[in-house]
Amino acid sequence: MPYGIVHHFPGGTREQYEASLAAVHPGPDKLPDGQVFHVAGPSADGWTIMAVHDSRESWERFRDQTLMPAMEAGIEGGFTGQPVETTFEVHTLLPAPTNG
After folding, report:
1. In which domain of life is the source organism classified (predicted)?
2. What's 77's DSSP letter?
């Protein structure tokens, strides 16, 4: 079942997002294994990122093996604090991802 994640970084900026993204994604315009959707942008008091993984397990693997180690080590120019996080099982994802 797809799994959604929303991260809000109060006071976050585009520059911090771009530095953080470069440190944890496999390359420009490429998503980590299991991630099927990624969107980000400025919000009322910071920066918000939304992602959908193909399963809760793929999210937890990315979080535990890539995202958190990089953030805990510190990403030069990246976000400096922990986000406000919301996670949920996705009921509807349109258009549906295709394999292949």
Report:
1. Bacteria
2. T
Dist. CA 71–CA 44, nearest whole Å: 23
CA atoms of 73 and 45, how far apart (whole Å): 25
The answer to whether residue 98 scores a pLDDT higher than 90 is no
Confidence of residue 100 (pLDDT cuts 50, 70, 90): low
Structure tokens at 45: 């008091």
Task: Please name the amino acid found at residue 48.
Answer: T
Give CA–CA dist 91/2, Å, rounded.
Answer: 8
Gap between the Cα atoms of 14 and 32, Å rounded? 20
Tens-digit pLDDT profile for residues 26-41:
998 899 999 999 999 9
